[in-house]
## 1
Amino acid sequence: MASRTWLACILTAQLAWGCSDMTAMPPGSTPLANAVVHQRPDIVAQLLAAGAPPDSADERGTSALLLATATDQFVIANLLLDHKANIWATDKLGYTAAIYAYTSHVPDDSPDGEARRKLIARLQTAGYPWPPPWPDDVKAMREAGQWPPQRRT
């Protein structure tokens, strides 16, 4: 039954974009990553509710959470965290959701600005170091087997 729900959700996403947009989805990407790229929180929510893995990635291996935060889509980022997306995910260069949130210039009084503040609070509550480490530091920590960092008590 779950696979039928998943299939129905993918078909809904295809219809929402028009088949041409879905056909253009790069090989190796996922419907969830594509929904983030197309800035569709409604489709993201549907896909997550239907069981899409919250750490789904694009064709480069960049997680949906990183795609959302890199493009200031903090409402979507919080949806992904609601479904247990990995807050410690990094891309190949060491960028994290936290560094994107920290360096964002999204207006505080916008919906994404409010969602950004919520995301930062959630990261800090989960033990994310703040301010977050810069990408080169994350990359070095990852290479040294020290990523994610141990939670401070």
## 2
Amino acid sequence: MKSWLEYLNILGFNYLYFFEKKKKDDKIERLEALEKIVKNCKLCPLHLKRKQAVFADGNPNSPLMFIGEAPGGDEDLKGIPFVGKAGQLLNKMIAKMNLKREDVYITNIVKCRPENNRDPLPEEINTCSPYLVEQIEIIKPKVIVTLGRFSGGFLTGMQGIKNYRGHWFSYKGIPLMPTFHPSYLLHNPKERWLVWDDMKEVLKKLGLPLPK
């Protein structure tokens, strides 16, 4: 093994970079394989009326992972999570953190749009959630932020988001901050400051500076 690494050095390869690149390539390959499975999933009736499954968006090497509920109409059309009005608000929230959308990883607990944007059913969450669990395992974020009561309830085991929002939890050793879904904030703008308080705690947990 040592002689092989020395040979790579002679050829001009930095073996630490080589292994890091391979590790990243493995992560991308695993996500691409999972996405292919999700795109072809027919495990629940949601596939019957979807235009496409919505897998994720953003940086798979990000330390920060946002998890929402389910795609809406805009997301179903474009195949990208959080691109409608709620997504625009999420983008503003991310920008307020001095981050860009491409700096974070964004997905939903349910990958297909529930008809007429209704809430996802418990059986739909239970059927689709293994995909999310695998995404978390592959991404290995340093912090998870759940958006809304469905992803928050699934990963924390809690009920009543107003009771547990803003408190730190742990999911398989990963710090988890539950907060309100951006669509809720569109109808309740006076509560945006609560989410901003939550995001400041997330920045502290990540060791990032708070915006002035």
